[in-house]
Write a structure and sequence with these properties.
The complex is a heterodimer.
Chain A lengths: L2 H32 L4 H4 L12 H11 L2 H32 L3 H10 L9 H11 L5 H25 L3 H9 L4 H12 L1 H17 L2 H6 L8 H15 L2 H34 L2
Helix pairs in contact in A: 3-13, 4-5, 4-7, 4-10, 4-12, 7-10, 8-9, 10-13, 12-13
Chain B lengths: L1 H16 L11 H8 L6 H17 L21 H8 L2 H30 L5 H15 L2 H11 L5 H6 L11 H27 L3 H9 L4 H12 L1 H16 L3 H6 L11 H10 L3 H32 L1
The chains are: A mainly alpha, B mainly alpha.
Protein name (chain B): Binding-protein-dependent transport systems inner membrane component
Membrane topology (chain B): Multi-pass membrane protein
Subcellular location (chain B): Cell membrane
Chain lengths: 277, 313
């Protein structure tokens, strides 16, 4: 082993620890420590230990003032249906696009994956939803999210279905299975790894989204968690309540962190296998 | 991502050019395909996508030429008024410039951070697996929350000045704030880039690296001559998604600077949000159309370039 290699053997983990401490440790500590401070100490968002610990009071206030429970339910009510629709509609389309040939099919495929690159036209979405009577409604928000993320799911699923041997379907068909049955019994179960990844990615994007939620849902009683955070943080200008902002951030982030911890291995393998072929 | 899209499109074009009889399976296959894979399976997705993604984008070619706003009851044709307004007050060029600078810097930071992390955490040890998860944490936090965290970190009374013992208004410079905000964007997404680079590194054949070692190549030489070129597909994917994604940025900028100081970080979406809030809908729509065109102008050469490179490989 060369001398540089020997030094590197110890320098590498040391460097990793240093980077992790600075890049993730410091922000994480700031959030957790500040969320436990009284307002007087939190005015200056520094890394000092809380002089007086009051996490329970802060989290309680963030929950009630930020209307977090309602925000959580509201988020769930738009994110969950969007994820299901993106997956189910996406899988159906991907099956047809992967198995059928012809100019029309490839045109439809190219069109539906154009959302991978093109930005959603958020201003005219509002116009359209108003005319449909869907402005400021959950179905409107669900439709917008579904339209936005369908491209991603169709793209990944089409690529995946092409790798599934056609013989599997044919065998089921010999036994007299209808297309719906073949789809539900053969294709959907095999799609599981892609479905896992797509679920995570769509959930992540929709759960964090504020831009489109602003335009479609607005503030109001249908406000999702990010809209609630924005409201709490906008009051920050006048009240300097970093302790509440960060208590909100912690609670809002927990579901996604939990999902990641549960499905970590699937997420990692799904993301990496889908991206680089 | 784009690679596969191109490949499939090319294959589909080849199939239709070769006539039906030229296809792998026998004639009559097509009608049976129609029975086995009925088109109505694709219909709901196509309808939703067309209705809530394509149609708004088409409408976006109409409303910018009207006087649609909160101050009129009707909507009438207004020619190029909205475009002359945003061109004359300088916001058009500024939005294009800030968005492109942001996108390029964010893509750069995200990829450099991600690649460095991937190289540091390449070996599959328990230590490394743990720290991969640690560096993935920012991906899981909403971008808005990330913005607030960094607003607090970079506050004049905040943690960074405390650590460095300085008193710098980090988010107050009309030049450097842009760099900082795009670096925050890179920080937020570096975990995703890292995972993709890790997969790319894993895909490099071991005997290739062995051969380089036998030939006496050092770690540095091996990286630049073999590993980095072999990472091309991962670089392609990461750069494309980072560029396109960051042109659509809103949350991080809104939460850190709100477009300031002196509009130096006012990207397209921040402008649209502000002007829409003022009730100037058609003007916001005009900016939205320009964003669309800018994204297309960046994406098409990018995709064409990738296709060309793929043919060389």
């Amino acid at each position: 082993m060369t001398p540089t290699a020997r030094v590197w053997r110890y320098a590498r983990p040391a460097l990793v620890l240093l980077l992790a401490a600075l890049a993730v440790g410091v922000p994480l500590w700031l959030v957790l420590a500040t969320s436990a401070k009284p307002q007087g100490e939190a005015v200056k968002p520094n890394l000092d230990l809380p002089g007086h610990w009051q996490p329970a009071a802060n989290y309680d206030r963030a929950l009630s003032e930020g209307e977090m429970v309602r925000g959580f339910v509201n988020s769930l009510l738009v994110v969950a249906p969007s994820v299901v629709l993106v997956l189910v509609l996406g899988a159906g389309a991907a099956w047809v696009f992967a198995r059928r040939r012809g100019r029309l099919v490839s045109a439809a495929y190219a069109l539906t994956i154009s959302g991978l690159l093109l930005p959603p036209a958020v201003i005219t979405i509002v116009m359209e939803l108003r005319q449909l009577g869907l402005a400021n409604t959950r179905p409107g928000m669900i439709a917008v999210y579904t339209g936005m993320y369908l491209s991603t799911s169709i793209f990944f699923m089409t690529g995946f279905i092409r790798t599934i041997p056609l013989e599997l379907e044919e065998a089921a068909r010999m036994d007299g299975a209808s297309p719906l049955r073949v789809f539900a019994r053969i294709i959907l179960p095999l799609l599981r790894p892609v479905i896992a990844t797509a679920t995570i990615m769509v959930m992540l994007y929709a759960w964090s989204d504020i831009f489109y939620a602003f335009f479609v849902l607005g503030g109001g009683d249908k406000a999702t968690l990010p809209l609630g955070l924005y409201k709490v943080a906008s009051a920050q200008l006048y009240l300097n309540n970093w302790h509440l902002v960060f208590a909100y951030v912690v609670v809002m982030s927990l579901p996604m962190v939990a999902v990641f911890l549960i499905a970590q291995r699937k997420i990692v393998s799904g993301i990496t296998s889908g991206a680089v072929k | 991502m784009a690679d596969t899209a191109i490949r499939t499109r090319a294959r589909a074009a080849g199939g239709s050019g070769g006539k039906r009889g030229g296809q792998r399976k026998s004639v009559g296959r097509l009608s049976r395909a129609a029975v086995h894979h009925p088109w109505w399976f694709a219909l709901p997705a196509v309808v939703v996508f067309a209705g809530f993604f394509l149609l708004p984008n088409l409408l976006n070619f109409f409303y910018p030429f009207t006087n649609w706003s909160a101050y009129h009851t009707g909507i009438s044709f207004a020619g190029l008024d909205n475009f002359t307004t945003i061109a004359d007050d300088g916001s058009l060029l500024r939005a294009i410039r800030t968005t492109l600078v942001y996108a390029v810097l964010a893509a750069l930071f995200q990829n450099v951070f991600g690649l460095v992390l991937a190289l540091l955490l390449e070996q599959d040890t328990r230590f490394n697996r743990f720290f991969r998860a640690v560096f993935f944490l920012p991906v899981l936090i909403s971008a808005l929350a990330v913005g607030y965290v960094f607003q607090a970190l970079l506050d004049q009374d905040g943690a960074v000045n405390q650590l460095l013992g300085t008193d710098i208004p980090w988010l107050g410079s009309t030049t450097w704030t842009m760099v900082l905000v795009s670096a925050i964007h890179g920080w937020k997404w570096m975990g995703l880039a890292m995972l993709i680079y890790l997969a790319g590194l894993k895909g490099i054949p071991g005997d290739m690296l062995e051969a380089a070692k036998v030939d006496g190549a050092g770690a540095w030489r091996t990286f630049w001559s073999i590993r980095f070129p072999m990472l091309a597909p991962a670089v392609t994917f990461n750069v494309t998604t980072a560029l396109i994604g960051s042109m659509n940025t809103f949350d991080i900028v809104q939460a850190t600077t709100g477009g300031g100081p002196a509009s130096s970080t006012e990207v397209f979406n921040i402008y649209m949000f502000r002007v829409f809030g003022q009730g100037l809908y058609a003007q916001a729509s005009a900016m939205s159309l320009v964003l669309f065109l800018v994204v297309v102008a960046v994406a098409i050469p990018l995709v064409v370039g990738l296709r060309r490179r793929e043919q060389m490989l």
